[in-house]
Amino acid sequence: MTPPPRLRTDLVARALLRQSGLDGRSAMLLRKGDPDAGGILVILLGRNGEGIVLTQTRTAQGEAAWLRGTGTTPVGAEQIQAYVDRQLKYDPDLWVLEIETLDFSPPFEAILI
Length: 113
Description:
- The protein has helices at 9-21, 77-90, and strands at residues 27-31, 40-45, 51-58, 64-68, 95-100.
- It is of the alpha+beta class.
- InterPro entries: DUF1491.
- This is DUF1491 family protein.
């Protein structure tokens, strides 16, 4: 079975920011990556400065999904930055988005694994 076609990363990143900001929450682009093929990290940031980093992945069926890269429990700002820095060493084309959240769930349609 052929996997579904992938959209350009810049289009996906901008759509995530737009969708996340619809309800008035803060949604910011922290780092631009490769517009065509870069991956995306989404920092779901709580008001106390803790957060969870989501990283793009695919399901076994090839569907777009998100993995909680820093785990299910919110972590501090230093741990968030350390995770982002490690990922940038492996993939310098990454996009990094930051979205304000109250419950650490993505404000966009997402399959979480």
